[in-house]
Amino acid sequence: MIGKRIATALLTLATLAIPVRATTLARASLDDLIQKSTAIVRGKIAGSSTVTRGSMIYTNVKIRVVERYKGPNDPLVEVSLPGGLAGGLRQTIAGVPDLVEGVEYVFFLWTGRNKITHLLGLSQGVLELTRNAQGEWMVGRGAIDAVMLDPASGRVVRDEPFSMRLSEFTSRVNQASGGGASR
Q1: Is 122 left (phi over 0), alpha (psi -120 to 50) or beta?
Q2: How confident is the model at residue 125 (pLDDT cuts 50, 70, 90)?
Q3: Domain ranges of the chain
């Protein structure tokens, strides 16, 4: 009887350590992300904290805005990401990006009626900034390791890496959103 209880307890603990893998993303094009976002900003991660809502853990990430391409001109934005570490428990959600404090990214954000801001398309909504061999700023991301569906067909598709010059990106945002970037 004691052996069965120990086995049950170990099985329960093991399932808590398994990452949540039920995330399915709808593939979004760059133009989809631009059109549907309520804000697009270039910024650096300036810290994070976690909260729990029901059985879910959320990590609230603060972004210090360096440049705004679309949306309100706020110097600091807080984004809520599903998953994180709270009370000794870790929730891992497929498709949620690993953001590094102090690193600069471009974010596609969406704020709902509840005033909580989210990344649009999870990892699809974050682009890393790098410099190419010519010293030009580039934005892009690697392929996302999560189940992704084509919204038109409903079929599972493989994500592809994405990269372009920051100047081209800025032009695309301005064309698609009809706005202008500001610092």
Answers
A1: left
A2: very high
A3: 19-177
